[in-house]
């Protein structure tokens, strides 16, 4: 999987600078961006078609599971996906259950209250998220899954866990993924690296944790020579002209935001670099999960690249 914020010379010709800037400026935060995207594309979401990746390993047939170990507000997440022989997700079963194994979907009073306050509830957003993963995201493209307005936190958790299940499916690893959610992060340095290049670059990411705080964040996009995209003067100049930002600006901004909050869900999307910002948050959540377990093994992401 790869969220792409790359602006090539071809796309500059094909799309006006005004249109690109407009796409990037639709939000100033992760939640507002996703909410607007969800509401503005609700009518077209049913027409999205799952694309096959041009790069990245296809998912292997099987059932893959993930489970949170701790309850939050009386519930914890259980999640599984079923992949067919063609490498496509045919079933997504994301659920939040209590200690009796009862789904939050069946909690009538909770659903009524959340609907009143947030405009949605588990009975609505859980099926919607599952349907999205079985639809346009069925081949592994998590970036097609819109955040459900009013259920931002659950949607972000869904995206994070779906990505981890897809990575397991690519490796054919059917062992249940255990998430020590809510636990304090253990001191150490945690790393993640993509395997595949998109438009000549791949993402690398590391965080340093001390006393349950992220004290250092190093998110970068590097080419085959290990050179950062921030050092590509021509690229930065062109993207700045089209999107009003560039890697030299948004990479430090994202790193700074994560260190400030120590919480990936509180990282603001950088206007003009929405997709890179979303990828940053997705990977930061994986690194946070690793830190909660104290697992310092580098996470290798066999990222899928999809045609635009």
TrEMBL record:
State where composition is biased (Polar residues): 46-57
- InterPro entries per UniProt: FMN-bd, PplA-like
Report the GO molecular function annotations: FMN binding
Presence of keyword Signal: yes
Q: Which residues cross the membrane?
A: none
The organism's place on the tree of life at top rank: Bacteria
Keyword Nucleotide-binding attributed: no
Signal peptide start and end residues: 1-21
Q: Which residues form the FMN-binding domain?
A: 74-169, 200-291
Q: Where is the composition biased (Low complexity)?
A: 22-45
- Annotated region described as Disordered, given as residue ranges: 22-62
Q: Which keywords does this Swiss-Prot/TrEMBL entry list?
A: Signal
GO CC terms for this protein? membrane
Instruction: Quote the protein name from its UniProt record.
Output: FMN-binding protein [Lactobacillus sp.]
